[in-house]
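Help! Submission page says 'invalid entity' but I think these are all valid:
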Amino acid sequence: MTEEVKPKDRESVVIRFSGDSGDGMQLVGTMFSNLSAELGNEIITFPDFPAEIRAPHGTLSGVSGFQMQVGGKNVFTPGDKADVLVAMNPAALKVNAGFLKSDSVVIIDTDSFQAADLEKAQFTTDDPFKELGLNSVQVVAASITQMCKDSLEGLADNKQALKSRNIFALGLVCWLFNRPLHIVEKLLTTKFKKKPDVLQANLLVLQAGFNYGHNIHASVNSYRVETVSHKKGFYTDVNGNKATVYGLIAASEKAGLPLFLGSYPITPATDIMQELTNRKELGIKVMQTEDEIAGICTAIGASFAGNLAATSTSGPGLALKSEAIGLAVISEIPLVVVDVQRSGPSTGMPTKSEQTDLLQALYGRNGESPAVVIAATSPTDCFDSAFWASKVALEHLTPVILLTDGYIANGSSAWRIPDLEEYPEIKPPFVKPEQKEGWTPYLRNPETDVRYWAIPGTEGFEHRIGGLEKNSATGAISTEPDNHQKMTELRQSKIDKIANSIPLQEVLGDKSADTLVVGWGGTYGHLYEAVENLRSNGKKVAFTHFRFINPLPKNAEEILRKYKKVIVIEQNTGQFAGYLRAKIGGLNPYQFNRVKGQPFIVARLVEEIQKIIEL
Amino acid sequence: MGQITYQPKDYKSSQLVRWCPGCGDYGVLNSLHKAMAELGIAPHNIAVISGIGCSSRLPYYMNTYGFHTIHGRGAAIATGVKVANPNLSVWLSTGDGDCLAIGGNHFIHAVRRNVDINILLMNNKIYGLTKGQYSPTSDRGFVSKSSPFGTVEDPFRPAELTIGARGRFFARIIDTDIKNSPDIMAAAARHKGTSVVEVILNCVIFNDGINEKITAKDVRSDKTIFLHHGEKMVFGKDNNRGIVQDGFNLKAVTIGEDGYTLDDVLTHDATAKDPTLHLKLALMDGEELPVALGIIRDVEAPAYDAEVEAQIKQVQAKKPARTLKEFLMSGDVWEVK
C-alpha cells in the first residue's frame, strides 16, 4: 500500500452516512456538508431518519441516514445513488444496498459486523456483501471501534470511544475527499466548547480516522470535487425550515409588523417553532400551545390584534386547524399556515416526505372557503416562499397555506444572505383616519376586493367581525340570500385577483418542445436535473414548476395549453394533475406519481419523461 | 390633561340585542357596560372575544373591538390577542358548553398560563342555541332532549376546574345582580392574570328556574353568602349566620347559638396562595352551606403576556442583533468574493 493513486476528479459525488439512530450520523453528515459548503461546493443534503428516537440497537428499523450531493455547480438533488457509503453496522448496509453505485466505496466498522450484529440485521450468511449481491463495491473494512479505543487509551473510557466512532468515520471521509481537517476541527470546537474532554477525544479520533485513510489510500478511489465561484456575497448553510423562519422574519421587517407564531410540536415542522423562539432578540413572540387548534387560534388572535401571525404544522395538524382556517377566511384576516408535508394518511410515516396535502390545503374546509396556497420549491426557496406567503396574506387579508415538505425542510444547501432591498414592499391595507366616516368592516377596495384593516387600539374604528356571515355593506350579521351569494363571490374574487400581483409562471428548457414537464413544490431539484439530463442527451423538453398554486399565475393556462404533451409529476396519486384538469377545461395531462416517502430517483424520472417524449 | 370619563352607553353598540326576553345574558351585558365605564378604558382599547353559543353573541352588543369566533376556541384566540398586544383590555364571553366542553382544553391552559384575560363564564347548565341539550355542568340525572332518561354523569364545577388549573382569580355572581356585578367584573379586569367570573345564569326557555332555590328573593340571603376580602363570612336575613371551621370542613352556624360568637366566624382572605379554603368555599352548594358569591380567590402571580415581553427584553440585553441581517451575519457565514 505504498503506491500513490491519483484522486478521481469529479463534478459531483454522493455520500451517505448511515448507522443506528444513536450513532450520530446526522451530526457528521451536517458537519461534512458545512465543511464542503465553506470550501465553495454546492450541496444538497437529505437526512433520512426513523421516527423512533432510539430504535433497538442494530436493527433495520433503527437505521438513520444522511445523504448529500457535493459538487462544483448545478447540484439540485441529494443524488440517486451513493458513491460513498459509511455503514456503521450490517443493518445500515442492508437498508442502503439499493442506493449504491456498482463501484461505490463502502466503509464499514468490522467490529460491529460480527455474527450477532449480522443476525440482528437478519442476514443468514456470514458474508453480507455477497448476500446483498454487492459484488463490485470497494469495501474499506476498518476496525473503527477498536481504533477509537486505541487512540483514546488512557484518555477516555470505552463509552466515549464508542461515541466517537462517527467522528472517526468523518475523518476517514475527509481523507477520501481531500478535505483539510481544520474546518471540521473548528466546527467540533464550537459544538463541544463546554465539554473540553469530549472535544479533545473527538479531535484525536478525527485525526486517527484521517491517518487511517492516508495509510490505506492505495486500495480505494479517492475524490477531488471541483469548486466554482458563486455570486458574490455572504453565504450561510440553511435547511428549508430555517429558511422558512427567515422568510417570515424578513416579511415582518418589511411590513413593519411584529411577528407572532402559535404552534404545537409535530414532525417535521417543529424546528420552525424552535428556531423562531430562539430569536427573541428580534422581538418575536412564540407560543407553544396546548394543541394544534390553539396554535392557529392564538395566531388568529394575534393577527386580529395586528401582528404578522403564523402557525406551523404538518398534515395531521393541518386537519385539526381546518375550522380555524375557515374563520380566517370569513373574517378576512391575514394568516400564514405553514404545512411541512409528511407521509399520510393519519400518522402515516412522520419522518418521510411526500406531497399529499395539496387537496387538503386547497379544499379541506367546510363551505365555500377559498384560501391561497403557495408551495416552496427548494430549501432556499422556503425563504422566498415564506416571504411571499406573508406578503399575500398581509396585503390581501387572507389565510395563506404555505406547503413545504419533510425533504426540503430538512435538506440544506448554501444560501446567499439576501439584501432585503431586493425584496418587494409589503403594505397592509390599514384604514386611514379620513376613512372614519361611514366606514364598515367589509368595505372593500374595488380593484382588489380586499377590505380595509382596522386593528384594536385604532380610535373610531371599533367593530365586530366573526364566523357568522355579514352584510357586505353594514358588517352586521346577515342571513339574507342575495347577500350570502354576493359575499361568497367576493371572497372568491378576492383570491382570484391575487393573480394580478404575483410573478408570472416561467418555462425552462426548450420552450418550443412538444413535451412540457410540470411539477410543483419540493420536487423542483429532481425534475430540473431530469430535464437537464434529457436535454444534454439531445432530447427537446420544456419544464415549468409551480410555486403559486391558488391562484395560479395568470399565464398558467396559456402555458399548459401550448404543449402537445404535458406530464405532471408529483409525489402523490395525482392531486395537482386533477386540480389542473378542474381549473383548465379539456386539459388532460399524463401523470407520473410515486408515494414511497423517498425523494424521486432522477434516473427513473428521465425514463418516464423520455417515454412521453417518444410517444 | 383631564381624565376622559366614560358612561355605560359608550360601550353599547347600535345592534339590536337578540337574546330571548328574560334571558340572564341581558344582566351580564348591562353589568359589563357599567364595569367598563367604571374602569374608564377607552372602547378602542378593549377587545371582547367569544366562541359560539348564546353567551358568545355578546361582542356584537359592545361598542368595542369584538371577535365572535368558533366553538370553544375563544380562550385561545383571546390569548393570542393579549400576547400580541398587552395594552388591550381583553375579555372572553363564553358559556358552560363553549368553555367547559368543546373548549375545555383551551380554558384550563389559559388559566394555567395566567394570561391577563377576563373570562365571563355564563353558566346556565344547558345548551341553549342548539335548543336544549345537557351540558358539562348539568346536574347528574338532568333530563334534557339529549338525556331523556336523565344524565348518568357528574358535572364539572367551574370553580374546581379553575382552581385545579391553578387559577388565581375566581369570582361568582348572579345574572340579575346588577348592583354587585359591575364591581366584580371591574375587579376581574384589574387582576393581572386570568380571571374567571362564573355567572349563575337562568335560561328562560330550556332551563327556567333552576337557580330559584338559591337566587329567589325570599331565600337568597339564606342560601348565598357574599364574600368580601378581609371581612367576616356572615350571611342570612338577619345577618346572624356565619361560616366557621369544623375540623377540615366548613360549617354554617348561627351567631349566639351553640356557643358560637362572631370571633369564631372565618375572615375571608381572597389573597391566600393556598387554594384549599377557597375551593371549600367555592364548592358550598346551597344545601347545608350557602353558595359563595363575590371574589373567592384573588392571588397575585406573574401574568403570561407580561412575562413574554420581559423575557424578550432580557434576551435583548444580551444579544445585540435587532434585524434578520444582523442576526445572520453574526452566525456561521463565509464570503464569496
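Support: the input was valid. A stray whitespace character was the problem, and the output above is from the cleaned input. The mean pLDDT of chain B is 96.
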